[in-house]
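Title: Comparing notes on inverse folding

I've been comparing how different people in this forum approach sequence design from structure. To keep things fair, I'm posting one structure and asking everyone to reply with a full sequence. Here's the target:
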């Protein structure tokens, strides 16, 4: 249904938690995120018939699903720097490249000045830098991250990649707006 109330200017707060064997830890605010992007992707394996003078595509099944989450942060505190460097911490020391296989869950809660709001759950991801961080610059310091989405069939069997919980807003009736079920929520042990 068309509504100009659906035109959106995106704003919101990004949260991160550790992910271990289907259990999501406590979500923490990562600070100001001037950019957040998600890109779902599929891969297909086309089949072509050779029954006529030229090949014709007669089947095109999906053989792979995944997604990429990208975001920038401009608060290079110890926690964000630890994730950027794929590091562990020992007291005041950040030990770079010591947690390269760590997994996380992200939650993005929108607070849009225009458009409907929602809470996005990215159930399980690995994280890496998406580019260099300038240590000397005339601009504000920014860290760019890229997350590769993983399937979370343990904690979210009915929606193993991403769950978006829409708020009552334009295009959604109050009766259609529902909270995620236990199978859609990040984890019964998760904190908000």
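Reply #1:
Here's my take.
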């Amino acid at each position: 249904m068309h509504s100009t109330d659906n035109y959106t200017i995106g704003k919101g707060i990004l949260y991160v938690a550790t992910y271990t064997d289907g259990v999501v830890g406590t979500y923490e605010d990562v600070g100001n995120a001037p950019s957040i992007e998600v890109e779902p992707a599929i891969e297909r394996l086309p089949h072509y018939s050779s029954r006529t003078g030229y090949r014709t595509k007669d089947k095109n099944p999906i053989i792979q699903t995944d997604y990429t989450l990208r975001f920038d942060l401009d608060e290079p505190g110890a926690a964000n720097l630890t994730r950027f460097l794929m590091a562990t911490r020992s007291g005041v020391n950040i030990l770079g490249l010591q947690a390269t296989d760590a997994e996380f869950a992200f939650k993005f809660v929108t607070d849009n000045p225009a458009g409907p709001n929602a809470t996005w759950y990215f159930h399980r991801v690995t994280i890496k830098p998406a580019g260099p961080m300038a240590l000397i610059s005339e601009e504000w310091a920014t860290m760019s991250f890229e997350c590769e989405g993983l399937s979370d069939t343990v904690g979210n069997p009915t929606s193993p990649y991403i769950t978006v919980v829409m708020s009552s807003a334009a295009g959604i009736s109050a009766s259609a707006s529902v909270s995620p079920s236990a199978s859609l929520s990040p984890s019964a042990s998760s904190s908000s």
